[in-house]
Amino acid sequence: MSYFDAASSLPLHPVARQALLAAVDEGWADPVRPHREGRRARMLLDAARETAAEALDCRPDELRFTSSGTQALHTGIGGALTARRRAGRRLVVSAVEHSAVLHAGEAHERAGGLVHRVEVDRTGRIDAQEWAQALGDDCALACLQSANHEAGTVQPVARVAEICAAAGVPLLVDAAQSLPWGPVEGPWSLLTGSAHKWGGPPGVGLLAVRKGVRFAPPGPVDERESGAAPGFGNIPAVVAAAASLRAVRAEAEAEGARLRTLVDRIRARVPGLVPDTEVVGDPVRRLPHLVTFSCLYVDGEALLHALDAAGFSVSSGSSCTSGTLTPSHVLRAMGVLSEGNVRVSLPPGTPESEVDRFLQVLPGAVAEVRARLGAAAAPAAAGDAAEPAGATGADGEAAADGDTAGAAPPERAGEIIVDARGTLCPLPVIELAKAVGRVPAGGLVRVLADDEAARLDIPAWCEMTGHTFEGAEGTEYRVRRAGGTG
Question: What is the pTM of this model?
Fold first, then answer.
């Protein structure tokens, strides 16, 4: 089985395992106690802090260990907002931040604060000038990830940090995805990370707060970790996290270059191997080990199961795999296709042969899922023709099942209505693709779809196939067929 989901979590690095086992026997005592066992535990904790601080390029006394990356983010955001409440109540974030940041923003709004979400382009990257305009005079804190966890796009953190510093606004950087590959550049104010992203043990987060940054940990505090993580910490896990971070950093340059070559191969070959596929994210300014692509006419969960059966563990941002009826907020903010989404993130040591095997297996897995959904012959390009399914015909009856929203509106000359209400993506897009060939060039297809994912996937389908998306009103989407044979 090939594990291609490194962006979610990694197994313990060998160095982490060794450090963890060694520290279990030495780091069990309370490090704040003055007795021999406490002093021994304190020495281990201090050494781990120095090691991790060196990797983060900060001072040891600026670094706190928390119980997770999420807690580090919530504590960092809450602490900065609390300490700077007199400066203002505005929190600036990008639209593609990790859900932990967005949830903290929602809590801030419920408490009466303001959140400004900076949009991104189709590669998932923010514009530094738009970021500068978003700060305003009442900004208490800005948050920006160093690299995106779904698309792999690297953000212009150094430039944004300079902009924030000039405006007198602290910048919190979520560096969970990029820390294994190198330190974060620029004059950032706060920074977070999560050990299980680089092969450290789960349950260890990092929060760095630069000296001079106003910070007041929210909630009850005690004497441990400067109040950022109350309670008795897991010293063996902290020791293992620091040791493994140092180890992966020593290998990062060579391994990053090797994995980048393999990811380049996936990015280049997938569109040719799998028709109607969109590779997303910045092709150059990206993490070395991560690539994301979306396949038209494919159910994301079914594709993940097919790849799992073939021996590959991957991830997805499609709505059908997330336990919700809405697509990934990252893909939605980028404005790219969400259906049939696959995220491949290669762990260190991935053999070239397994990447080649993945490329051999993928076309068959996609074709199998498409055939199961009745989409094997669905045309994508302008000018193709096929019998529609789910479109109202001459008798005016809608073919889609599960319609609970009433009869479809009447058709007019030169148009077709596809009634896909009550179905979930990718089915509305499949029916649109089948129906578009029945209207003449310049003709209109009106799609009725109540699945939230359709708001993203129908415009994305038009972008990929050359047809024109004319807009949406309620649950109706208007698609104008491009020129071609009728």
Answer: 0.88
